[in-house]
Design a protein that fits this description.
41% strand, mainly beta, 11% helix, Immunoglobulin-like, 260 residues
Amino acid sequence: MKHLITNNLGGFRLRMEDFQFMQEAYKEAIKGMLSFTSEPVFIISGCEATYLSPGTWQISEGFVWIQNEMCYMPAHTFNLLAPNVIIDIYEEYDPMGLKVFKNSSEHEVYLNKIAKLRSVASLPVDGVLFSATKKIGEVIRPILNVGTWTLFSSPDSDAFFGGTTPDQAKRRWFKDIDSKISLSGLYSPPSSGLQVIGTLPVGARPVYEFDLQINLFEVSTETFHPVYCIVRSTGEIEINIPTGLSTSYFFLNQIPAFKS
């Protein structure tokens, strides 16, 4: 790692090369910590999507790893139903960074690289849909061998947010290091009433049958529907589908009391 030696007496005049050396030092350190994966884009923190109204989601502030850099994402709103929504880098200059140089020329020197959502006609090279962008925990878990998301035997193949459904939008389950189970994915109900959306394998089933209420987000109407859900000790996960419900997204987070 690069080090700027600062314990010599007398001091010296700072030059642009000195700032460049310091900047390269911390960029190399951050890259060294976060380049443990081949994932071109992943969320380090924040960047949560909250539904506000038809066509509008609130994206919370956070940090992402993109183009071999860690970038800040400010809070902003976006339409997640737009085609090919990706995380992209925008560049802007801080007005405080307009400096007068020795030769009397003026230059902007405070460049901010920020991440925001953008809709594109087609995915760029190494482009990842926002709906398929992994969080840092999902990236680290396979490396630590503490479990990964696993598709159910008959995953839903409906398109989600346009294009071919990525694995992150298919029906899947995950067992974390504490043996708690999370479920997520799309479901296109064939009819109303109790429907099995997936069956957990042996080792990921509850000791006792239990029921709970979950929210289904209907994609076509952008509406949340509270529904009754049963998780059986034999592994079947059933939800009570309202009449007329179309393709919807479901998520259950860290269900406790599962067998080891």
